[in-house]
């Protein structure tokens, strides 16, 4: 079988990384087309990949007859239009999170895909492919910890870009813990509250950082998340499940521990998400390519997962402004056959 020919749309931080991943580490696929709003950037990436060309219009790139499947690594606000084009052309698509940036358009995408009667959209919640999250999930599924009761999460970044605002802490950072909660517990989140402790003096003016998210699942499990995106320290993502027969934690970042004179010990903190989740992105892409090649089209989080995450984050942003707990408004999955 010949290699899957992929179009990568948006070759910024993630897209350039994904193009390199597909070219050097993933088997059964090659990057045939790249596109970026900044055409020079696309030309430059295309020049570095054998058999790859730049296409100036994203919709032309999706429709291109030499393209079998699409990777969307463009900014969230452009996803809706580009996803609809992928559906129209029946092209499988791995869409970086978020599915779309608002609940209505996310639901519209879920319905449009369900109308086609075939799944084509996978959403890039890569933590589901990380070895540590997979181990935690399988421990919960085998029941060896007993009934899970509480999830404690920490999500810290050393710094964020200057345009990162308080709502983005919810929509861009917390969204991963929202998906992790749904993945680990296999149930929806029904309410969310965002608490704003005193702000970090080093955070840009107006940025509510840190934030504490408190979520409740449909069966009553408690989830809390410390979000702190201006620590100046490193990338720290920890997840602890407390269950009836014990607890389990991942993300301790324990690599090499050095002891040396004068009486010190310690190691290195992972600098960023690309280093921490490099293996997860590789596994995510290999499994997606394999699924598209054998006709399953999706092997991971679906459009519904993208919609559910958008609904929880929407309620989170309301709570960020009101301070109180907010119920998550979602349609029932059964109301959309095929979703
Ligand atoms: N899964 C993860 O861990 C993770 C991490 C970071 C970002 N993301 C997501 O990946 C996506 C890209 O993020 P990024 O950090 O690479 O952003 P980025 O700004 O570095 O890259 C986006 C690129 O898209 C281009 N672009 C903008 N509008 C376009 C359009 N209409 N058509 C084609 N190209 C367009 C920009 O010129 C830029 O090169 C976002 O959806 C983001 O939320 C996911």
Automatic annotation (TrEMBL):
It catalyses: myo-inositol + NAD(+) = scyllo-inosose + NADH + H(+). Keywords: NAD, Oxidoreductase. Pfam families: GFO_IDH_MocA, GFO_IDH_MocA_C. Gene3D superfamilies: Dihydrodipicolinate Reductase, domain 2, NAD(P)-binding Rossmann-like Domain. HAMAP family: IolG. Involved in the oxidation of myo-inositol (MI) to 2-keto-myo-inositol (2KMI or 2-inosose). Belongs to the Gfo/Idh/MocA family. This is Inositol 2-dehydrogenase. It comes from Mycolicibacterium confluentis. The gene is iolG.
